[in-house]
Amino acid sequence: MSTIGIDIGGTNLCLGIVEDGRISNLFSTPSFSPESTLEQTLEHLSNQILKIFNSGVTKIGIGVPSVVDVKRGIVYDTQNIPSWKEVPLKEYLEDRFHVPVAVNNDANCFAMGVYGTYPADSKPETLVVVTLGTGVGMGIVNEGKLFCGTNCGAGELCCLPYKDSILEDYCSKKYFTGAGWDSRKAAEAAKAGDSDALLLFDEFGRHLGALVCTVMYAYDPSHIGLAGGIANNYPFFCQAMEEYIWANFPYRKPLENLKIDVFTGDTLPILGASLI
After folding, report:
1. Residues contacting residue 260 through CB under 8 Å, at least 6 positions apart
2. pTM for this one?
3. Residues 190-213: pLDDT tens digits?
4. pLDDT at 26
5. What is the pLDDT of residue 273?
């Protein structure tokens, strides 16, 4: 008995078979062309699933960068897929493959993937995973179950007002772009000891600290996981982030109990999709 986990991105479709927490038959293929019709995208997705589908598959789980009606598996206004305005993805794939299909937001799937990496005897009570990339995503797992909210948008704290804009603009690649840097080049410069790049990451850490404080107020987590491309640069901003949190969050005991971990595995969305 196994599950197919799928991560649908604007650039790539990533698929794999998950059994007992182990991933096999993992592969990635270019995502849908922006010019593709809805029918063409669904056919392309089905063809990729067929490459690894077998008689032992009992479920399909899919993460989508979109608002999702989780109960009915309907996807709305998917980022970077123009034809996906209102897609009954669950119904379509269940009719095609005759196994249960679960659909959820990609950040929620990532959060479940992170949750799945913790040993059985030390699972987080309340885990919030923050993905730091082109934008900011967030997923909440409470006592082993996703907390999605009514419209699968419970983690959209990045949209809260902050300074002259919103938190996302200061806690993602957008912050580096706004400062005239490419985030990867900034990381390379920081590794080489460039003072301007190091200062930029220091400032980024303080902004991220503001987001972490907001997460603490909203969800009172036992664990926070930082993921996504920028999380690879944690050593450059962790001190500034922690200093900001300790200076600005008023309750000491939750901070003493809080555990912040970094997760950078590429397969976590696949694992998480298999667990939704």
Report:
1. 212, 223, 224, 225, 226
2. 0.88
3. 999 999 999 999 999 999 999 999
4. 93
5. 95
For each of the domains in the chain, give its residue range(s) and CATH number, in order of start: 2-109+268-275 (3.30.420.40), 121-262 (3.30.420.40)
pLDDT of residue 16: 97
The two most distant CA atoms of the chain are separated, in Å, by 57
Return d(Cα 9, Cα 228) in angstroms, integer. 13
Evaluated on CA atoms 179, 181, 182, 187, the torsion sign reads negative
Query: What pLDDT, on a 0 to 100 scale, did the predictor assign at position 18?
Result: 96
Dihedrals φ, ψ of 9, to 5°? -115, 170
Report the distance separating Cα 167 and Cα 165, nearest Å: 7
State the 10-residue block means of pLDDT for the chain, 276 residues long. Answer: 91 93 92 93 96 96 92 90 95 98 94 93 96 91 92 89 97 96 96 98 98 97 95 97 98 96 90 93
